[in-house]
Every structure is written in structure tokens, then in C-alpha cells.
């Protein structure tokens, strides 16, 4: 079973994630339609989001990405996708 939450999830999602993290196989974060830090770019912002969740004690993460343009007008390029795949593998994010 997985819990799916939006990227950069604030309340009530952050409380729910902490409450159920040991009861689900994975917490799937959907990293699109998010605020992007201009100094980090789209991929860098996603990496920072994942790192924050890991630092908060959530280790059973699965990363959801949407290539192309999101509703906010950000474009996740093939190069961004490749960078994030390497990052996800390095962080040992779950593949279900």
C-alpha cells in the first residue's frame, strides 16, 4: 500500500506522512506543479524536497515525476529526468 502526496506537501500531509510512514510500503511524492527555486532549477528543487523528507525520518519514498510542462509552466527536461533517476537510485528511493 502507498500513500500519495503532492510535492512540497505541507499540512495536513506532513503530519499524515509521519503518522503512517511505518504502516505503508511507500510514500509516493508527486513532484510537479511545485514552487521552483530559481537558483536550483527544477531538478535541484526536487532533490532538496526529497532530502528534507529523508531528514525528517521518512525513508520509504517513491518519487513521481511528470516529464514536460506542468501546470505552473515549469519544464522537466529529459536531462532533468536522467539527473533525478541517478539521484533517486543514489538515495535508494523505492521502486514499486
Short account of what is shown:
This protein is an alpha/beta fold and 96 residues long. It is 38% helix and 19% strand.
Please tell me about this protein's structure.
The protein has helices at residues 13-20, 41-55, 78-90; strands at residues 2-6, 26-30, 61-64, 68-69, 75-76. It is an alpha/beta fold. α1 links the parallel β1 and β2 (26-30). α2 packs parallel to α3. It starts with a strand and ends in a 6-residue tail after the last helix. The mean pLDDT is 90.
Tags for this model:
alpha/beta, globular, 96 residues, 5 strands
Distance between the termini: 10 Å
Using the CA coordinates, give the radius of gyration.
Answer: 13 Å
Oligomer: single chain
Order of the strands making up the biggest sheet: 1-2-3
Main sheet specs: 3 strands, parallel
The averaged pLDDT comes out at: 90
**Backbone shape:** globular
H/E element order: EHEHEEEH
Strand content: 15-25%
Low-pLDDT runs: none
State the share of residues found in helices, binned by percent: 25-40%
Discrete helix count: 3
Please provide the count of β strands.
5
Helix-strand makeup class: alpha/beta
